[in-house]
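Page 42, continued from yesterday. The earlier attempt failed because a stray header line got pasted into the input along with the sequence. Redoing it now with the clean sequence only.
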Amino acid sequence: EKRVVAIYARQSVDKKDMDVNAVLDVLLSAKSEDTDVILLAEKEQFVFSPEELSQIKDIWVMPMTDEEISFRFLRWQQDCKMSKDFWQTSQYLEATINNVPNLVWYKAKNGIHEKVNDSFCRTVNKTKEQVEGQRHAYIWDVEHDDPACIESELEVMTMLRFLSSSGNYSRRQRAYAIMLACISGGCGGEFDCYRLLPTKKSELSSTLLPSSLCNCR
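This time it went through. Structure tokens are written below.
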């Protein structure tokens, strides 16, 4: 297994020795995307352009005690880990929802589709950029939002329950919905998963596997 170690450089700029902005410009132009620049500067040195500030991770005001330096460095480490954890979790989510045949979507309380998967986009023949931020009527090219959808959304969000429904059509279908919690408490929206179940054995492989894998041997 290949492992990549990212080394983050901490640079100290002393105005007594050289021009702060000139040194900073050199550092920012040379840094890679995975490098955080933490600027150590005295209060009177705080004359930086918006462009410079946008590329700086943090500014530590000098002088600092050893305890404060340790505290700030620990906070940087925690922030770095949180960022890496977020990236990894995002990879898990994208890999999961975009490689299943089910239609997956996340809605806000107002019915806006916040996130959808690849199967959803293929079904409605629209891109994620077109779908996300839109309501049912636009996405499905109908005049009004489906009353049945609105009713089920209200049931999920107001009763805080898990819904599972099925019907008998040319291909059986099953829909799942569950409430999404809001960070401030209560309901923030809902998660929906719509599954088409094959009626013939020949449909099984193309239904259970993403199209990119169906022809693999």
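Notes: The chain has eight helices and eight strands.
Reminder to self: strip header lines before submitting.
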